[in-house]
Amino acid sequence: MSPVEAQKIPEPAPQDLTVVGRAESAATLDALLDVSMPIVIEIGRAQMTVQEVLQLGAGSVIQLDRIVGEPVDIYVSDRRLAQGEVVVVGEYFGVRITRVLVNQGVESAA
């Protein structure tokens, strides 16, 4: 086998760079609008020892760190985006958004 030589790729000259127009930006954004993202609703957390976990069985109850009526956290792709309250929609659970977290620590009431 012969060794492979690394080739340096020349950087484009400033005049070769083009500014993307608004129409092109909108088209690029439109392509992302159908991307599916995971949403996780966290109602609380608990910490247990391995022994406690091994003792869990049908009917076991795990106490969470939140009290009844406290807002639940809404995560989109592992980033906390909002808070809400649990509601019932027909035969399903849902979450009504009550607060959108705009920037880290800055909140907006929904």
Description:
The protein has a five-stranded antiparallel beta sheet, with no helix packed on it. It is built from two helices and five strands; from the N terminus they run H-E-H-E-E-E-E. Strand 2 and strand 3 (79-89) form a beta hairpin. It has helices at 22-32, 50-54; strands spanning 39-42, 72-76, 79-89, 92-103, 106-109. It has a domain at 36-109: Surface presentation of antigens (SPOA) (Roll), CATH 2.30.330. It is extended, with a radius of gyration of 24 Å. The longest helix is centred in the first third of the chain and has 11 residues, at 22-32.
What is the secondary structure topology, with strand pairs?
Blueprint: H1 22-32, E1 39-42, H2 50-54, E2 72-76, E3 79-89, E4 92-103, E5 106-109
Antiparallel strand pairs: 1-2, 2-3, 3-4, 4-5
Which tags fit this structure?
alpha+beta; extended; 5-stranded antiparallel sheet; Surface presentation of antigens (SPOA); 110 residues; 2 helices
Shape-level CATH architecture of the domain at 36-109: Roll
CATH topology annotation of the domain at 36-109: Surface presentation of antigens (SPOA)
Helix and strand composition category:
alpha+beta
Major sheet details: 5 strands, antiparallel
Q: Low-confidence segments, ≥5 residues, pLDDT <50?
A: none
Within the largest sheet, what's the order of strands?
1-2-3-4-5
What's the assembly state of these chains?
Answer: single chain
